Amino acid sequence: MSFENFLNHAVSSWMNEEGPEADIVLSSRIRLARNLEEYKFPALITNEEGQAIISKLKEMVEGPGLTAFGKLELLSMHELQPLQKRVLVEKHLISPHLAEDSPFGACLLSENEEISVMVNEEDHIRIQCLFPGLQLTKALEAANVIDDWLEGNIKYAFNEDLGYLTSCPTNVGTGLRASVMMHLPGLILTQQINAIIPAINQLGLVVRGIYGEGSEALGNIFQISNQITLGKSEEDIVDDLISVVGQLIAQERSAREALEKTSRIQLEDRVFRSFGILSNSRIIETKEAARCLSDVRLGIDMGYIKNISRTILNELMILTQPGFLQQYAGGPLRPEERDIRRAGLIRERLKLEIDNR
């Protein structure tokens, strides 16, 4: 497969589109956790019960009803190769838990990959909607359409006082996790981020790395999400997160302006050194690639680099992960082989971008 064909098939639509506040917000995600009333939570169900839930959802998908998002494809985890599941994790379409730990897990996936419904993960159903830029309200509206469609065909576990019942008590209530992926190099370079994160936590929000809980903030990318799901409406949770994200956007832009005024030549040097590394390296590790990609994205946003799209960070942060590198190579790779492939893939992608301008 040529690199261009691989790219066209590998990249989700949100990766190469720009939404509102795209210079700082990479993506917005809404996730709704739901369980079926007549079954025990996934940790306790038998294989037969797990398969029955999948069959129920398969019948719904194959029947009439949900047309707003096109055809949904059902992927059974036990039918996928480990590498295929790893790629789905790297694209944020399924969780590591579903990929590794669920013998009767499945996923409903829309063709454009904006919609993903995990089945028999920590909960029976986890609806996920992913959009580029700051579009939490739009993502919530889409998730509610799918939620209403499901609830019209199956009965959820619901309590009048507690709301939707979930495996983890921290999700009880709305079952909603709203999150945004933000690129915050200005706050890192001006050393403000360590003071900001505790303040965000005090507002009932949590700051994580690119792949959620326990992951690193590779490439200066942070995931900001709500912690409170009980006692607030879905709309209030989303509005609160949008408000905080708006303040973070303002602080990041202010930090970038300060860097421009006080350290422009040093910043330009950093950006173009990183661009040179990405354009010419023959071997590069994940962390160095992420750092350089962040620098180049910042250089694009600040107008230093003019012939490359800012969506390249969205793409390459995914395409340079181990699963994608091995998929492109057609099989397993040793760590050093992955580093060589990563460097080659980045060079090819940059060349393709420049040639098409």
Automatic annotation (TrEMBL):
GO cellular component, one term: extracellular space
CDD domains (alphabetical): bacterial_phosphagen_kinase
Highest rank taxon of the organism: Bacteria
InterPro entries: Arg_Kinase (IPR023660), ATP-guanido_PTrfase (IPR000749), ATP-guanido_PTrfase_AS (IPR022415), ATP-guanido_PTrfase_cat (IPR022414), Gln_synth/guanido_kin_cat_dom (IPR014746)
Catalytic activity: L-arginyl-[protein] + ATP = N(omega)-phospho-L-arginyl-[protein] + ADP + H(+)
Keyword list, A-Z: Allosteric enzyme, ATP-binding, Kinase, Nucleotide-binding, Transferase
Presence of the UniProt keyword Phosphoprotein in the record: no
Signal peptide: none
GO biological process, one term: phosphocreatine biosynthetic process
E.C. designation(s): 2.7.14.1
Renumbered ranges of motif RDXXRA motif of the pArg binding pocket involved in allosteric regulation: 338-343
Function: Catalyzes the specific phosphorylation of arginine residues in a large number of proteins. Is part of the bacterial stress response system. Protein arginine phosphorylation has a physiologically important role and is involved in the regulation of many critical cellular processes, such as protein homeostasis, motility, competence, and stringent and stress responses, by regulating gene expression and protein activity.
Name recorded for this polypeptide: Protein-arginine kinase
